């Protein structure tokens, strides 16, 4: 069965019109005769969106009971049984009510796609999993409902539903998104112009990257080598010299001039002797280009201009930035240089910028090497000198008489020239042709293939031997130069790689991408298996080539031990490259082991935290329970003693001590039991709608009279909470605030409504808590500062936060203006979904 196709309407924020666009698309398809049904769409009371639902078949929803309420969800089984061609599923990142088949709606969509049903869905940019930290830094709100980026990237179509921040805020002000009583709070919080502008930029950039990936795939599949200037990409060619930083900054300035400009710095390690790159300098340049928002690439290539142009065309670059040559004037006899060659061969679709710098014409720093062995042009000239040179020289010498000795020296000089140019074989050819010509034209008897004087035989033999010796030395030197240059390039790559891996800066996918990029392959994968007969599994893969399930399916495979292999597709590597590949494979195994050790360390930390909690619990039981027990026992023993006649005042004092100790024990044991319930996940709130003034005043009963004030307006909306848990949480908060408040400064408990939530603030004027400790005070068995041992075991705030989160709320600490600490308890207003915090997830209110 063919897999269904997924189409996603992506928006920057709630209210831009994603659901409206999805329903409009559904009507167009129905008009064309497509079998299209509404699996789940929320109109959120918007008349225009609700009108579009008319005329579309809707699959009845499934109702689930959760925490005392009834909530509708998509009936996945009913949609699968209906088997439409297209299903509309709103809010892809939605969290399903517990009791559903899948935890997330995108998992429901995956089942529909696997059944061959096309799906049209919606999602906001803030719900993409990889952007969680970015969105939180922009809005101050952490998105709790997310969808993996890969799910969205696999969609056949991603359509951006865009709207300017000004237009969106007008829609909000006109009541087209939220109810009128929620508009002011929304405009002053989540829907601020800065927030909307930043989210819109994120959405535009994400869709642009998606389009770029499509373009790259299309160019690869259709073998398009010509550059399409759809986006400014600046390739900065680096040699590893100090001028690289100047070139990177110039490339960054060029990229800033074009919309969506991108900088790619590339260092090509070649074998023909470019100035040796300093690993330290390359590391500095890599850091600089990444700080400027670009990427750094390290590629091996024998021909620098060809490799640079191939890289630029491969990434669809539009401009190349190179530095002016550092060679001195006399060094240009060896060729025009990289910059001139790249400019000549770049063609009309690539602009080449030659940038001046302080190192121009100061020399390369190392002697110029003459190529990877001997270049093609040199070999051609060597053969010309070795084969055509001797006849031309003979024709010239036939016009003058210089004597046999001079003739032999001239032929020997020609043989040496052929050796220097072309190596061994052209020199041998020159020696053979030259010796025949010397024998025929210049040694008696002339014009015959014979030698009369034995001394001439010795001279010709020496001539041939000298030519062969010189050619051998030249060829050996070229081979050694090639080997040294290649080993230098390999050592640079390995040292740079080892440094990154040892510092833990390279992840497995990053390392595989480096392997693929270095050797110019289509894909790279690390395969492993548990045993000799077990199937292979993929631990990590990058690239766009065909999937690799076994090492024998790859073009190149490098074993790593008995049960692991690095597999590459794209081309067959020469044997000399396998040494570097083996080092990459070993490093990949190290990175994989490090990742698994990190995961095991995380599990070990979890176990250690559990042990710490248990140890603290035992310490609390052994000390904090013993103290009130000892006081109670001493008071009871004193009262039962027949040796002492207690007065009424003494007896009352002892009984008061017993009562205080019992209350203290009751409070302590209650907190311990509450914390154990929270840690074992057995807290099941019974949610119902109540007024705050029914519960909050009761929480103040355990503190001295006059130590706390109450401000709960009667106009507040009802909240959906568990009254018992709310009372316990509020009692702990008030007790903690009173404990740290100075005499004469009563604690204030105030409540207010904000959008779809109600906030209860417990304000004290105590010493306060620094920002770095605000989260730590909510951990179990934590007492801030110099709190005395008798102040409790440090569970009150931990229990309060646990109860708040169990009811679908939050508890955080803020500074009190003028000094002190304010505990902010946020609760859900009646009628909102339990999974949703309105400030964090506005998607529920507007799609």
TrEMBL record:
Q: What class of enzyme is it?
A: transferase
Tell me the domain of life: Bacteria
Signal sequence span is none
Compartmental location: Cell membrane; Membrane
* Catalytic activity field: ATP + protein L-histidine = ADP + protein N-phospho-L-histidine
Q: Which ranges form a coiled coil?
A: none
- Which GO molecular-function terms appear in the entry? ATP binding; phosphorelay sensor kinase activity
Q: What is its EC number?
A: 2.7.13.3
Which InterPro entries does this UniProt record tie to the protein?
HATPase_C_sf, HATPase_dom, His_kinase_dom, HisK_dim/P_dom, HisK_dim/P_sf, Histidine_kinase_KdpD, KdpD_sf, KdpD_TM
Every copy of the Histidine kinase domain together lies at: 620-831
* Name of protein: histidine kinase
Q: Which organism is it from?
A: Streptomyces variegatus
